[in-house]
Amino acid sequence: MSNGYVPLPPAIAVFDADEKKESVFVQLFRGYDYDLRFFRRPLDLRTARSIDDVEGIAMFLRPKITSKLLHELPRLKVISIMSSGFDNVDLDACKSRNVSVCNAPDFCINSVAGY
Q1: Is residue 19 part of a domain?
Q2: Which of 30, 31, 43, 104 has most Cβ atoms within 10 angstroms of its Cβ?
Q3: Separation of alpha carbons 47 and 32, rounded Å
Q4: What are the distances in angstroms from CA 27 to CA 10, 20, 48?
Q5: How far is 109 from 85, CA to CA, in rounded Å?
Q6: Total structural domains in the chain?
Q7: Residue 1 lies in a domain
Q8: Is 3 domain-assigned?
């Protein structure tokens, strides 16, 4: 017996995504039930307030992820940073809220080695 409730797909917000990056995400998530939302700008407090239902965020630039910003994202479960470091993230605040943080440790490794 169903009560008519249909759960919404998990929402993922992707920041600093140009058309090429957006296309890659759409291809990667094809066939999966996610609500992908793309933003051309970096994540900030104002934007966070408008996406308080997201469970995941992916970022290409490195805005500060503070306790105050996390407070605006009550359903957040994971932060994915598309770069090698995560010193811009308050890891203690993430840990206290059970938010996982991952990065891309080999991001641009060939470019940096060639420089």
Answers
A1: yes
A2: 43
A3: 25
A4: 17, 11, 25
A5: 12
A6: 1
A7: no
A8: no
Locate tokens 């996390």: which residue? 70
Residue 3: pLDDT over 80: no
Residue 5 forms part of a structural domain: no
Q: Report the distance separating Cα 57 and Cα 25, nearest Å.
A: 12
Query: Burial level of 7, CB count in 10 A (0-12/13-18/19+)?
Result: exposed
Contact partners, residue 52, CB within 8 Å, separation at least 6: 72, 73, 74, 75
Can you give the three-state secondary structure of 6-62, one letter per residue?
CCCCCEEEEECCCHHHHHHHHHHCCCCCCEEEECCCCCCHHHHHHCCCCCEEEECCC
Per-residue tokens: 97: 């809220």
**What is the pTM assigned to this prediction?**
0.82
List, for residues 58-104, the tens digit of each pLDDT value: 998 778 899 999 999 999 999 999 877 788 899 999 999 999 999 87
Q: Which of 70, 101, 72, 107 is nearest to 87 (CA)?
A: 101
